[in-house]
Amino acid sequence: IADIQDDIDHELVSKEQIEAKIQEVAARVSVDYKDKDPLVIAVLKGAVNTVVAFTQALSIPVQMDFMSLSSYGSGTQSSGVITVRQDLSTDVRGRHILIAEDIVDSGRTLAWLVEELKRRGAASVEIFALLEKPARREVDVDVKYKGFEIPDEFVVGYGLDYDERYRNLDSIAVLKPSVYQGDEA
Ligand code: PRP
Ligand code: MN
Ligand code: MG
């Protein structure tokens, strides 16, 4: 098994840039949600790194819950079908919800989740997405708290995977083409 850095072609967003951006967003959210007793919902697995850094940067106490959703199979293309791998354990009725997500690509995952949370009776639903790929958007999603806009390249790291690997990279990066070889979706 090779060193994780050996599979990286180039870095798109550094660990330092990510941390600075998360601090900035968390400062805004701490003000906006001061009297709202928010419930932060992380969209697993991709949002795992983002939600930890983000909630630790907040200056207000929050509740956290987790929903594991999948729109991608093992390839690099979204299937468009959202599968609930694991549901929340919190009743969201009347709650002010802040979704923490790693990336908005087609927008289908978040569009589905926002609708679902409203259907369950949430009082409000807003989104913090660390990354957005505007070139790939297929459905409209209103992201109130934005991180970085990135080009249409398949990225990994900071929670984002390729075939379930590379989530543990501490920055956002593009893999070497050789990593996908013979494995293109
Ligand atoms: C990825 C990513 C987002 C979603 C974005 O999750 O983490 O949740 O796809 O794509 P979309 O905007 O086109 O819906 P994935 O389905 O790969 O599951 P994972 O988080 O467990 O990796
Ligand atoms: Mn995801
Ligand atoms: Mg994935």
Percent range for β-strand residues: 25-35%
CATH level 1 class label: Alpha Beta
The hetero compounds bound to this protein are: 1-O-pyrophosphono-5-O-phosphono-alpha-D-ribofuranose, manganese (II) ion, magnesium ion
User: What is the topology, as strand order, of the major beta sheet?
Assistant: 4-3-2-5-6-7
Number of strands: 9
CATH architecture: 3-Layer(aba) Sandwich
Quickly give the structural class.
Answer: alpha/beta
**What is the total number of structural domains?**
1
- Biggest sheet, in brief? 6 strands, mixed
What is the fold-level CATH name, i.e. the topology?
Rossmann fold
**Unreliable residue stretches:** none
> Helix share of residues?
10-25%
The helix tally amounts to 4
What is the subunit arrangement here?
Answer: single chain
Family: Belongs to the purine/pyrimidine phosphoribosyltransferase family.
Organism: Bifidobacterium vespertilionis
Pathway: Purine metabolism; IMP biosynthesis via salvage pathway; IMP from hypoxanthine: step 1/1; Purine metabolism; GMP biosynthesis via salvage pathway; GMP from guanine: step 1/1
Domain Phosphoribosyltransferase: 14-162
